[in-house]
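[Automated response] Your request has been received and processed.

Submitted sequence:
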Amino acid sequence: MPARGNQWSRTSARIFRTIWRNPSISRIDLAHKLDLDKSTVTKQVAYLIENGLIMEQKEGEASARGGRKPICLAVNKEYGRFIGIELQLGFYEAVVVDLSGNILAALRGDTHVTSDNFVQVVLQIIEDTRKQHCKNSLLLGVGVGTAGLVDSKKGRIRYSVPLGIDKTLDFSKVIAGKLDVPCFIENDANCCAWGELAFNRVEELRDFLFALVEYRKDETSLLKYGGIGVGFGVVLAGKVHTGAHGYTGEFRSAFCNGPGNLQFSLSRDQLMLLRFDRSLLDRAVDELARNMAMIINTMDFQQVIIGGNIEALDVDLPAILRCRLEENWMYPSPKDVKIRYSSFGEKAVAFGAAGMVFERLLSEQRLPGLVSTNSSDKMKRIS
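Generated structure:
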């Protein structure tokens, strides 16, 4: 077997990612694309096939000079599964995602979560999801997305208005000894951004804003924060940007006066009436669009993706935002920004949480199969 090490794992990760993004690529094309020696690619591919991460698929087209047809490579989507969980006040959404980024199953249920039972609720959701949908599959990792100030690097929830968490919850430390797979936690809007990045083969997303806009009509949500919650996932140079303290994307309208836990200038009573008073709804959406326009023009994003359940309120946020973007732009040439709704709908957070795990394990070379086949060494690397 070839020598293993950090360089070996990094090269394996590069090759695996390239095969993932380019289904049916050949060894020769891999070598050219990554500027690697053919012998290196041959050894690495053999190693990834041996470990089950990729497989030979079919013969490609022969070159113009003739000769043998190249054998195409593809990711083995059956290799393992990721579980992504969105955990919010009153409900959870869990999805099972394969290695190709396909959602295989989804679960949704009611739950009562607090700072005291947060970890236990997560463990129960994982157990239920594994029993129902991962019984005969290798679970590669779990991602959790939730609202609030989340320090994803340290795995801590610092503060969450919706969940009533007002002191640091050291999630990763508490859950570490209770799970046999890696488990990461992230802010819900950041998870949405991860989902767009990690499982996207169609386009290369470099600089974009994901706006997670959710409206909850349960009594507790209405009383705590008016029922409407907004958070942003910021992606710069192809990476989720979390800022100096991990809190990039936290939103409070520039039109708010004084301290408080409401995100808009409307009063709590006014926010509670959004479903029944069209003028108040229009006012809230326009206020959001004004704030977003300033951020988008300032940061020069190439794209804006809107997720959550804002569409259920029957408002055309993209059109309103487009108008505010033009009003906020001081130059004669129009601003070229693509605005669209997320294709993942209300599963965007859970799906993104799975994508976040995939991306972290791959970038950190902790995805099983990228590291040494020595079992003890492997367990050290993925624990």
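Summary generated for your ticket: The chain has three domains: 6-75, 81-192+348-382, 203-343. Residues 203-343 form a domain with the Nucleotidyltransferase; domain 5 fold (CATH 3.30.420.40).
If you did not submit this request, please reply to this message.
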